[in-house]
Write a structure and sequence with these properties.
Blueprint: H1 2-10, H2 14-24, H3 37-62, H4 70-75, H5 78-121, H6 142-169, E1 174-184, H7 195-200, H8 210-218, H9 221-231, H10 233-236, H11 254-264, E2 265-270, E3 273-280, H12 283-341, H13 346-377, H14 383-404, H15 412-451, E4 454-460, H16 473-501
Antiparallel strand pairs: 1-3, 1-4, 2-3
Length: about 500
């Protein structure tokens, strides 16, 4: 009963006053004592609900007899009191049911409110130094106008004009690619096709390669003139009349056509391999130019190959002819010597004469021995001694006669004849050996010339483009923009540097 009296005695005005004051004036949270879940629910969720639903009860109670204090309690009948208690009980039960969702929301609101209160009550930090005034709004100056104007004139306007020309006036160009190298039958890359020519001028055969010669030939006026005679390059490169930059607008001079050739035909040379990129306003024209270049290069290689082969054979042939002449002269000299001395082989004749003299000398020695024996054993008037002396005399005369055939008693004239003969024989033998060597060299030169024939091997035949690749508009526009930007920046820096020095 005491509980009910307390509730009914102050339920008309006190709860409403406390709720209004709690809502109007924010309370300072007490962080010293932690709040439990139940207290949190009663504090934050139940009180507003009780305050809101307690108003009808208070209004119903107000209909009774007026009067403050205990007089108001006595004016209520028991039935009214029971009704108030039931209403309050219902309000409390409804508040507990609604606390599950509303309490959580209310707790979050209260926490945010507490944080705001704590931030508001926190003392402000002391200001350090004077407070600066806010910057004023930037205004355009003459320097800004000059920079913007110079940028538009030097960069923006040329870039716009370049973009308009590239995308509106520049004609599409098709590219044809060709790749080839000079090869030999052995499979190795040719390095000395002009060996014969370089040897004639005293140079080394390995100083100039076939690919070097071909690389220079493709850039020469001779090739431009030959290709123009076959395809009419002026007409091919003049098919874009609205494109004066990338089209051909030159005259009939070969130098103008040669300059256009340098821009339309790019040559890439690396390690004996030559790559070409040919541009034209039509895919078929680009392919035809590439094929013409390849055909003319093949003709040049064949011509140089024939010249080199003929030079090598000519040298071997000349050497063979000179060796033959030397053999002929040596044989004629030996024949004249034999006819003059009536000797086929003086060496053999000398050997025969020497043999006869040796035999006679042996016989002479025997007769001298016999004569000595006869004189020792026989009488001085013995006829055998006389015969032996006569025989010795005859043998000596014969030996003298045989020695006369040598030209003199000492044989000096015959030795000179034999010396001359031996010299002529050596000359003939050397000439014959030289002729044999020259003949072998000539045969080898012919075989080498046939084996080392060069030819043009194409590893990339002239291609037919399916779509245009040039001009590369985006790349060109980027390069133009970057170049103009650099020029403009450098010019501005120079201008302001000179102005600041004044």
């Amino acid at each position: 009963m005491s509980d009910t009296k307390d509730v009914t005695g102050k339920g008309q005005n006190a709860p409403l006053k406390s709720d209004d004051s709690a809502n109007d004036a924010p309370r300072r949270p007490n962080f010293s004592t932690p709040l439990t879940k139940k207290d949190d629910i009663q504090d934050e969720g139940a009180k507003p609900a009780v305050a809101e639903k307690a108003q009808p009860a208070s209004e119903g109670a107000a209909k009774g007899p007026a009067g403050p204090g205990p007089g108001a309690k006595a004016a209520l009948t028991p039935a009214q009191r029971r009704q108030q208690r039931q209403q309050r009980r219902a309000i409390l039960e409804g508040a507990e049911e609604e606390d599950t969702d509303e309490a959580m929301v209310q707790r979050q609101v209260n926490r945010r409110r507490q944080k705001a209160i704590a931030a508001a009550t926190r003392p402000a930090p002391a200001q350090q130094g004077p407070v600066r005034k806010p910057a004023s709004r930037a205004r355009l100056s003459r320097r800004h106008i000059f920079l913007a104007g110079s940028f538009c004139i030097a960069v923006l306007f040329p870039v716009i004009v370049s973009a308009w020309y590239l995308y509106a006036r520049a004609a599409d160009q098709y590219a044809s690619y060709v790749g080839f190298s000079v090869r030999s039958e052995s499979g190795a890359t040719s390095t000395e096709l002009l060996g014969g020519l370089t040897s004639l001028v005293g140079g080394s055969s390995g100083t100039t390669t076939d690919s070097d010669v071909l690389y220079k030939f493709i850039q020469s006026h001779d090739l431009v003139e030959k290709v123009d005679a076959r395809l009419n390059l002026r007409e091919i490169w003049s098919k874009a009349p609205n494109d004066p930059i990338f089209g051909f607008n030159g005259g009939n001079a070969l130098e103008d056509l040669r300059s256009e050739w340098s821009s339309k035909v790019r040559i890439y040379y690396d390690n004996g391999m030559i790559d070409l990129r040919v541009l034209a306003f039509n895919a078929q024209d680009a392919q035809a130019i590439g094929q013409a270049v390849m055909d003319e290069s093949t003709i040049l290689i064949n011509q140089l190959n024939d010249v080199a082969r003929e030079d090598g054979l000519r040298y071997a042939r000349d050497e063979l002819e000179r060796a033959g002449e030397r053999v002929k002269e040596a044989r004629q000299a030996l024949t004249a010597f034999r006819n003059r001395h009536q000797l086929v082989d003086p060496t053999a004749d000398v050997q025969g004469q020497v043999g006869v003299v040796s035999t006679l000398q042996s016989q002479l020695a025997e007769q001298l021995v016999q004569l000595g024996l006869l004189r020792a054993n026989a009488q001085p008037n013995d006829p055998r001694i006389e015969q032996s002396e006569l025989r010795i005399q005859v043998i000596r005369e014969q030996i003298a006669a045989e020695r006369l055939k040598f030209g003199s008693e000492t044989g000096e004239a015959l030795s000179e004849i034999v010396g001359q003969y031996e010299g002529l024989a050596v000359d003939r033998e050397f000439a014959e050996q030289s002729y044999v060597a020259a003949r072998a060299t000539y045969d080898n030169a012919r075989a080498e010339a046939a084996r080392q024939s060069r030819y043009l091997a194409a590893y990339v035949k002239p291609t037919l483009a399916q779509e245009p690749e040039f001009p590369q508009r985006g790349k060109l526009l980027f390069i133009i923009t970057g170049f103009l930007m650099v020029i403009w920046i450098v010019g501005i820096l120079i201008f302001y540097s000179l102005r600041d020095r004044r």
